[in-house]
Design a protein that fits this description.
Leucine-rich repeat, LRR (right-handed beta-alpha superhelix), 20% strand, Cell wall hydroxyproline-rich glycoprotein
């Protein structure tokens, strides 16, 4: 299942709008700031000094139940500690988390161990959309046979325990749509097998560590948090196929190292940040790109031929920036292009192939620019100072425009749905997962595998 418009969607656009503006806020607003702070304090009081569980913690707990093997016993300790750290479970998701038969627990999936096919272990946890209120205890680090951990669309608060570094074969970590706080959770960088990281719709803040972009991930989703920093210069070292940074406060220029991502990067979403400067010419190396969304930022200069080599590009959104001069004909003729939105800029010339038309298979939006022959454009008074002011990209500063100066007006999402397209479902390739986690068939043990919403 792809994010793109030409593919099948899980939901219709009206449902997507309903989810993001009605359902999702109801999830997140169910816990007040005061309640969230209280849960964080409770969590921190349970943490050992280093935030990790002692090596012998499993032997210090007296359990009467008997288990088929020690690994199931360890998982039982982790799950029972987690249940105690839940303060509200409105759908009774964990109602049957009782007794030693943990493979029958709701949302818990077992599989033969990788190193012993005759031994059953807990291979994954998926309690997505449970609306559960609580925190993650350090004892979850005892569940070091799990390959996936999905808790999206709940009300978990607090921080990610350091004990998650013990989850050595964890492949998918989905913490999206919760109330996690603090700086970027560096513990995830110490999980060696991690490929998919989803932290969307939380309250993480601060800078992204450069180490994130040296990690062998296939996709990371950080949109709708409170991150605020320039992207590190090693941004292009990342081998990911999907990057979603939308709706934060990232600043500065796109690092020129982005050109190194040409062999792997398929989709990038920078929507609604404070990026500035010229879009680097190095983006022309991203020849496998299908989605480029840089709307609602402060990019300047002209397009030149940066996007012309992208023969697979389907979605291009440059709306609400300060780009100007010519919209290249070659871009509008790209063979796979389905949606090109360049509204609310300062373009003053475009090819006839870029003009919106009901006869075109491609959706174009050229409104609120500086094209005298087109309707719904900016006034000459607004356009002239920008269009006549040359931009030297070699000297352009990576500083965003003041909010009052940004050429932005609220997007018409009924006409321009591209600004939601990377906040939508996407199934990533599980071939790598099935190779590395051969006995934990991720796609069969959960119906909500790999980021059901973003």
């Amino acid at each position: 299942m792809q994010v793109l418009f030409g593919s099948t969607w899980f939901f219709s656009l009206p449902f997507a709008l309903f989810f993001f503006f009605v359902l999702l806020p109801s999830f997140l607003s169910a816990v007040t700031e005061e309640e969230a702070s209280l849960i964080v304090r409770r969590q921190l009081l349970t943490f050992p000094e280093n935030g990790d569980s002692p090596d012998n913690v499993e032997y210090e707990i007296d359990i009467k139940e008997t288990f088929a093997n020690k690994r199931l016993r360890r998982a039982y300790i982790g799950l029972q500690a987690w249940k105690k750290a839940m303060y509200s479970d409105p759908f009774n998701t964990t109602g049957n988390w009782v007794g030693p038969y943990i493979c029958a627990y709701n949302g818990v999936f077992c599989s033969p161990a990788l190193d012993n096919p005759d031994m059953s272990v807990v291979a994954g946890v998926d309690i997505n959309e449970g609306d559960i209120d609580g925190y993650l205890p350090v004892e979850l680090g005892l569940m070091n046979d799990i390959a996936l951990f999905h808790v999206n669309s709940n009300r978990f608060c607090g921080v990610i325990p350091q004990s998650f570094s013990r989850l050595t074969i964890l492949h998918e970590l989905d913490l999206s749509n919760n109330r996690f706080v603090g700086p970027f959770t560096k513990v995830v960088l110490s999980i060696p097998a991690l490929k998919y990281l989803d932290l969307r719709f939380n309250d993480f803040e601060g800078k992204l560590p450069p180490e994130l972009f040296n990690k062998d991930l296939d996709g990371f989703f950080l949109n709708d948090n409170r991150f605020h920093s320039d992207l590190p210069e090693n941004f292009g070292n990342s081998p990911v196929s999907v990057v979603v940074l939308a709706n934060n406060k990232f600043t500065g220029c796109i690092p020129k190292s982005i050109g190194k991502m040409g062999n792997t990067l398929n989709e990038i979403n920078l929507l609604n940040n404070d990026f500035a400067g010229c879009i680097p010419t190095e983006v022309s190396s991203l020849t496998n790109l299908t989605v480029f969304d840089a709307g609602l930022n402060s990019f300047v200069g002209d397009m030149n031929n940066r996007f012309c080599p992208m023969k697979f590009l389907e979605i291009l959104d440059l709306s609400s920036n300060s780009l100007k001069r010519l919209v290249p004909e070659k871009v509008c003729k790209l063979p796979k292009l389905e949606n090109f939105t360049f509204s609310d800029n300062f373009f003053n010339e475009e090819s006839h192939l870029c003009v919106p038309s009901s006869n075109s298979n491609t959706y174009f939006d050229d409104s609120r620019n500086c094209m005298p022959s087109r309707p719904t454009q900016k006034t000459t008074k607004v356009c002239t100072p920008v269009v006549n002011n040359p931009v030297d990209c070699n000297k352009s500063k990576c500083v965003a425009l003041p909010i009052s100066s940004k050429p932005w007006s609220p997007p018409d999402t009924t006409k321009t749905p591209t600004q939601l397209q990377l906040l939508r479902p996407r199934n990533l390739d599980h071939n790598a997962a099935n190779t590395e986690i051969a006995t934990a068939d991720i796609t069969s043990i959960t119906t909500n595998s790999i980021f059901p919403f973003y």
